């Protein structure tokens, strides 16, 4: 990845992290965050597929009582970066890269 791409990914991650607290423009939603990272890195279709899959998982996350829901912004950004690195690393199997990113998103969101 080029330095400009890395800078744009950091800006998207910053927006998603801030929106997880501010909750105003919904940048922290997996569909938006993964789509933006996919667009910035040159993998827009894969970003939308990953974001849609993570959004369906995140629909069931809610703060109930003292329990805190997993962080959807962290899961989205980290899994999108993992997916992009897998696709840029020579892995031509898009489905395997997306499945790996989804499998790693759940433990990352709870951490």
UniProtKB/TrEMBL annotation:
Stored Pfam families: EII-Sor
Query: Is Transmembrane among the key words of this record?
Result: yes
Keyword terms of this UniProt record: Cell membrane, Membrane, Phosphotransferase system, Sugar transport, Transmembrane, Transmembrane helix, Transport
| Protein localization | Cell membrane
> Organism's domain of life?
Bacteria
Which GO BP annotation is one of this protein's? Answer: phosphoenolpyruvate-dependent sugar phosphotransferase system
Membrane topology term reads: Multi-pass membrane protein
Where primarily located?
membrane
The name under which this protein is listed is PTS sugar transporter subunit IIC
